[in-house]
Amino acid sequence: MHTAASVVGELRAAGELWEPAPGLVALRGETLRLFRALAEMIRLVARGEAAEEWHVPPALTFDTLARADYFASFPQWLTAAAHLDASERELERVAAAAQPAAAAVSALRPTATALQPAICYHVYAALAGTQLDEPVFCAAAGTCWRHEAGRFAPLERGWAFTMQEVVCVGCAADVAAFRTRGIDAAETLARRLGLQPVLAQATDPFFAASTRGRALLQRLRALKHELLLPLGDGRTLAAASFNDHAQFFGDAFVIRDGSGAPATSGCVAFGIERWLLAVLVEHGTDPRNWPVQPLPEPTAARLAS
Amino acid sequence: MHTAASVVGELRAAGELWEPAPGLVALRGETLRLFRALAEMIRLVARGEAAEEWHVPPALTFDTLARADYFASFPQWLTAAAHLDASERELERVAAAAQPAAAAVSALRPTATALQPAICYHVYAALAGTQLDEPVFCAAAGTCWRHEAGRFAPLERGWAFTMQEVVCVGCAADVAAFRTRGIDAAETLARRLGLQPVLAQATDPFFAASTRGRALLQRLRALKHELLLPLGDGRTLAAASFNDHAQFFGDAFVIRDGSGAPATSGCVAFGIERWLLAVLVEHGTDPRNWPVQPLPEPTAARLAS
């Protein structure tokens, strides 16, 4: 019987998993090949839904997040990309400091760039101000950042982690059907991997201390389900979520559906490291017992020799 | 005759390239498929050299960078990942603010986590304190961050960009041969893509204002070459670099070669967006004229329907 802790301990001992910084995980060896195979399977699920893939950069503006009311919703998770004061004097102070890391901290400039907490904000921002004759379905994957101080656990909950999303923006019926198909596809994938998924209704962990947060919580009342996968010690882990945001983002980003009404949006999101952990907990760390063949090593000949 | 500006203008007009934030580029459509095909070709070049691939997270500690004397070398590029003060009071202040983005800036906590300026620091950190019986060859790709305020140009110079690296840590002869093979492989790839590469000796843009920076510059005197690709208007762009760090990182991270001496290290690095730009400048934005077939769309059937 495997648990998240036993699996992570074995991978650490084998040198296939390590943490270069708190909440950040590196992988190599067979575990990395399994991670990539799972990412590719999940990408194919996403592509089954999406008209096309987008490649989005790892960050977006504070303005985009403000438009999505992110600061009132999840300020606790926010992670920003900050650079140093570019003045020669400040750079010189950092470069010459006896403790340059400490000096660098005090030279950081205020920033207006956030590391993305989810992929789908890029989609709403790109569609802002448009009217959609047809529903938009697109897929994108990337690193997302959510700071959960004191709760980091390798593969289970990282500061940075890998998310595959599929987004639908259209009318309410488009999004409802999209969400149902997403649930079916994720459950099918989990069973193909020998896992026992449980679908559960869920609520986003809004920061509800503020009046505004509470109001949002009421207003969003978004339809959210999560796919829970067993972690082996009676615990489960949300490995995918299926979200209907109603007209929240359509309103916020002024996106209209074919009828001219604010568009409805929904997203299906997979946390790749969590799928890896669930497969390892169910089947162990020996590749011979895995239900999926890791991707073959690329057979590159040296181009020049 | 295409130029970087004309190509980027065409992609923007076609909706295949946009900037969600300053220095950050998103891609879709045929351009994205070409980007992925080039990334895969470059990955195969890297895999031809590397014993294995590593998957590294997008950030590392200030301590690792300090050990590599990064703060004295390139403080101007440094980008950090910062999160908010987790106190209820501060989060409430941000959530309830009339200008939450501005409030968030003032709630950012000092940080000790840097977004990686290059991939290879992860390798030196992971090998710290070890003795290598055999040279290590590994490959890894990821997003790197270098802040070059006022110099951002889409695909040419981004705040965040995609780097494929191959790293060799061993003895001096291992690294010298590795570097030569890397140069050959990159030149061969460029010619296969119909480009006219020029190999040039180069110097890292050390921050030389500080005494320490100048001393480093003397001491490192690293052997560096760059592969320059034409940008169509008489300009060229460094699309790959080939670096021999001598014993600098072996000393800094206490890595020993088989003889017990500080290990020698070298790396070969490819900037994927720059290869994309060079191919587009040479061949234009019409996919029918590209010298490489974009990867086919994955043909995923809906898993559940």
Q: What structural category characterises the helix and strand content of chain A? A: alpha+beta
Mass-distribution shape of chain A: globular
Biggest interface between chains: A-B, 98 and 98 residues
Oligomer: homodimer
How far is the N terminus from the C terminus of chain A? Answer: 49 Å
The number of strands of chain A is 12
Q: What's the mean pLDDT score of chain A?
A: 91
Strand content of chain A: 15-25%
Written overview of the protein:
2 copies of one chain form a homodimer. In chain A, the strands form 3 sheets. The first copy, chain A, has a 7-stranded mixed β-sheet with strand order 3-7-8-12-11-10-9, sandwiched between helices. The longest helix of chain A has 21 residues, at 29-49. In chain A, β10 (223-230) and β11 (236-244) form a beta hairpin. Chain A is 37% helix and 25% strand. By secondary structure, chain A is of the alpha+beta class. The radius of gyration of chain A is 21 Å and the shape is globular. In chain A, α2 packs antiparallel against α8 (172-192) and α5 packs antiparallel against α6. Chain A has 2 domains: 4-79 and 117-289, Bira Bifunctional Protein, Domain 2 (BirA Bifunctional Protein, domain 2, 2-Layer Sandwich), CATH 3.30.930; 82-114, no CATH class. Residues 300-305 of chain A have low confidence and may be disordered. Chains A and B meet through β1, β2, α2, β3 and β4 of A and β1, β2, α2, β3 and β4 of B. β2 of chain A pairs antiparallel with β3 (52-55) of chain B.
